[in-house]
Write a structure and sequence with these properties.
Layout lengths: L5 E5 L2 H5 L1 H6 L11 H18 L5 E5 L2 H11 L4 E3 L12 E3 L6 H22 L5 H6 L4
Parallel strand pairs: 3-4
Antiparallel strand pairs: 1-2
């Protein structure tokens, strides 16, 4: 979480582990690993790429408050919630795991998707677009 933008992404574990999901998310990288020019290209392509994986997701939302995150988590009642380390103490859920403790490759990919969605939203918002939230809503599930 940064700048009040939190991405919440959910998927069923069998789908997350499937080879098809791995294939359609091969493009996912951490934004910090990209140079500034590559990051711009990556973020420009993100909406098109993200729309191709929406069918696999149960949930993809942007929240601007912890209350919104809590409400989503409890409405879906997932088996496990992976929480950004910065939010771990602020989000209450009995079965939560800190992001830094996740070692499984397929779950790391889900974390990257959430980070990418939040990064895209922050980028739109930082450009001063009044419609940044509307553009992000087009990607939500």
């Amino acid at each position: 979480m940064s700048d009040g933008v939190i991405a919440v992404v959910g998927i069923e574990e069998p789908i997350l582990k499937s080879s098809k999901f791995t294939q359609v998310t091969e493009w996912v990288k951490h934004l910090r690993e990209l140079g500034s020019d590559k990051r711009k290209q990556y973020l420009r392509a993100l909406p098109r790429r993200f729309k191709k994986i929406r069918q696999y997701l149960m949930l993809a939302r942007i929240c601007t408050t912890i209350r919104c995150v809590q409400k989503l988590i409890y409405s879906y009642n997932p088996l496990v919630v992976i929480i950004d380390d910065k939010l771990a103490n602020r989000v209450q859920y009995p079965r939560k795991v800190r992001e830094s403790n996740v070692k499984e490759h397929h779950r790391r990919r889900l974390i990257l998707l959430a980070d990418n969605l939040a990064g895209y939203a922050r980028t739109l918002r930082s450009r001063g677009s009044n419609k940044w939230l509307e553009k992000v809503k087009e990607l939500e599930v």
